[in-house]
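Researcher: Good morning. I'm working through a list of sequences from a screen, and I'd like to move beyond sequence-only analysis. For each chain I'm collecting a predicted structure so we can compare shapes side by side. This is the next one on the list. No need for commentary yet; just the structure.
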Amino acid sequence: MDLQHDLIAFGILVGYYLAFAIPIAVISSLLSEPKREPIRKSYHIFASLSILIILFFFSTWYSALLSIVSILILAFFLIIILEKFKAPPITAVKRSSRRSEIPTQIIFILIVLSVLIILFWGIFGDGYRFIIAMGVMSWGFGDATSALVGKKFGRNRLQHSWFDNKKTLEGTLAGALAGSAGALIALLIFSPLPLIGKLILAAFAGSISALVEAFSHRGIDTLTVPLSVSILTTPLFFLLNFLEGVF
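Model: Good morning. C-alpha cells for this chain:
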C-alpha cells in the first residue's frame, strides 16, 4: 500500500463526486419537475464512471474499499441532515417524498462496491477488476437510458407479473444497448480478451442488465443489476478465455 498515492486517489475521488453531485443537484432545483428526470438520471452515469477512478488510482483493493466506505458513510449522514432541513437541491433530486430514498441508494451502492471489490479484486486478484467495472458501468448506462427512453417513447408495457409494471419494452431494449456499451467501455479499458470476446461479453452483460432492471422494483436495481451482471458474466468470461487458449 502506497499511502501518499492512495491519499491523492482519495482526493481525486472526492473531487470527482463533488464536481458532478453538487451541480446536478443545484440544476435540478432550478428546473420544473418534467425537466428534472434527465438530470437525475445523469447521476447514474456519473456515479458509474467513478469506478474508473477507483480501479485506476488506488494501489490496493483494501485502500479503495476503505476510501469508498468513508466517503459513502459521510454522504449518508450528510444527506440525512440536508433532508431534515428540506434543502432544495436534495428535495429536487428525489423522485418521491420518501425520506429514505437517497440514503437507501447510498447503502445499495456501498453494498455493491464492497462486495464487488472484495470478490473480484481482493479474492480473485487484479486481473479480474474489469468485472467490477463491467457490472457497475452496465448498470449506470443501462438504467439511465432505459428510464429516459421508456418514459419518452415507451408504448408497450411489460405485462408479466414478475416485471415492474412501469417498465416498457422500448426502454428495456434501449437499456440493453446502453448497458452493453457501458460494459464494452470497461472491457476495452481493462479486459485482456480479444475484441470478439469483448463484444460477446458486453452484449451478454447488457442483456442481463436490462432483464434484471426490468424485474427490479422501487430502485433496488442499483443493488441487483451490478451484482447480477458481474456474477453471471464471470462463467462466460472463463469460457471465452478457455476457447481463446484452445483456438
